[in-house]
Amino acid sequence: MLKPLNFGNYQALKRYSFNQMNQWATSVYASGFQDGQDSMPSVLEFDSNTLEEFLLEIDGIGEKTVKKIVQAFIDKGESAWELDAGGEE
Questions:
Q1: What pLDDT score does 89 carry?
Q2: Residues forming a β-bridge with 43
Q3: In degrees rounded to 5, what are phi and psi of residue 43?
């Protein structure tokens, strides 16, 4: 990842208008977002045991509800959890 701000940029930023500052901040955000998407796997791993353990730690969710949730994930199927290039299901 590149450093978004160096001393030269800092000097220029001090003289930016609102629109220029907004554009710079948006470009930094977009760059970070893209870096995050690039580092994310294209297929999410599903482990029913890990999901059960996680859900059981939540107050108000019992074993019956956890089993229903996990079964719903399994019923949905693995192919449904693959992410497209846009990062959406």
A1: 43
A2: 82
A3: -125, 130
